[in-house]
Amino acid sequence: MVRARCYGITRAYCGHRFAQRSPERMEQCRRLIANERNVTMPGLGRLVIRIFNEYHKCFQSYRKRVDANCTGLLRKAIANHRLRATKVVRATMDSMRPLLHALPDLRVIQLVRDPRAVTVSRYRFSPSGRGAYTERVRKQHSPFVAEATLYCHHATADIRSRLELEREFPGRIMLMRYEDVIANPEQRFRDIYKLLNEPIPKATLNKMETLASRGQRRNLTTKWQKVLTLTDQAKIARRCSEFFQLIGVSPGEIPVSSTTPTYKRGKLLKPQLTRAGSRVA
Predict the structure, then answer these.
(1) Rounded to whole angstroms, what are the CA distances from 113 to 120, 152, 155?
(2) What DSSP character marks residue 225?
(3) Nearest to 161 by CA among 112, 104, 97, 79
(4) For the chain, first and last CA: distance in Å?
(5) Partner residues linked to 13 by β-bridges
(6) Which residues, 6 or more positions from 272, have their beta carbon under 8 angstroms from its beta carbon?
């Protein structure tokens, strides 16, 4: 609720979905929101100054309420646990640098997923999970290819940033592939606890293996094969080639499904049989 109200103030200027504004505008908004650039600095128009002054006042008002009613309780709860984890969906790897400097015990795990699975997941979720770029091109081109291209653009830049951070903070950052977790949960979670230099609790391991087995039964890592056409699969593999290269995976490692769907007027129809054994190059 707080984020919705406060970010609503900046929506007209910064946009509210992926790629709705230019990269230059988004970087300016990021710096202003993070207070890396003060609104009193020269070069900002009066409208921009007013927008971000209102934004920061909004957050400050909620901060006062949180400090008065919640902060003490949260600190007490956190202090009672030695290991604390948080999932930050839209944080970039660049934003981890100041945290890694400030918190010597901080460990960062970058989770990535096959872009073909990502695009199907986003498209089935809701329009709010897709980029404005996808919405603009969907009438002329496949929305799946557009969304996967957008994901790979951001993810590839993030991976490059992670590689730089790994050289600066060796032993504190890990890359994790979603598909690897589903395929071999025990080894991947042992890797995580090795990064933390902690023994893995048996109950935690059992729970994670149970969740991973559900993903295996639901075919979460290969469901995209039954949704994307062979043409879309090949286009995504080509446009995301650098992404696959950086994570050390060939897009053709997983055989393409023996069925492909029919896509018409924004609706997915039932799959139709195609050549068995086809692979994405």
Answers:
(1) 12, 10, 10
(2) G
(3) 97
(4) 45
(5) none
(6) 259, 260, 261, 262
Pinpoint the alpha helices (H) of 70-201: 71-79, 96-102, 115-125, 132-137, 143-168, 178-183, 185-196
Give residue 28's pLDDT.
85
How many angstroms separate the CA atoms of 166 and 171, rounded?
Answer: 7
Give the Å distances, CA to CA, from 86 to 89, 106, 109, 163, 211. 10, 11, 10, 21, 18
263 phi, psi to nearest 5 deg: -115, 125
Virtual torsion, Cα 60, 66, 72, 75, nearest 10 deg: -80
Of 217, 229, 230, 221, nearest in space to 264 by CA: 229
Mean pLDDT by 10 residues, the chain (281 residues): 70 73 81 75 83 90 88 84 82 89 94 93 65 53 86 92 95 94 88 92 87 80 89 94 93 51 40 34 30
Q: How many angstroms separate the CA atoms of 221 and 212, rounded? A: 11
- Cα(281)–Cα(273) distance, rounded to whole angstroms? 20
What single letter denotes the amino acid at residue 102?
A
Q: How far is CA 122 from CA 41, 65, 145, 148, in A?
A: 38, 35, 12, 9
Q: What is the pLDDT of residue 263?
A: 39
All residues at 6 or more sequence positions from 77 whose CB lies less than 8 Å from its CB, including other chains = none
The CA distance from 97 to 103, in Å, is: 10
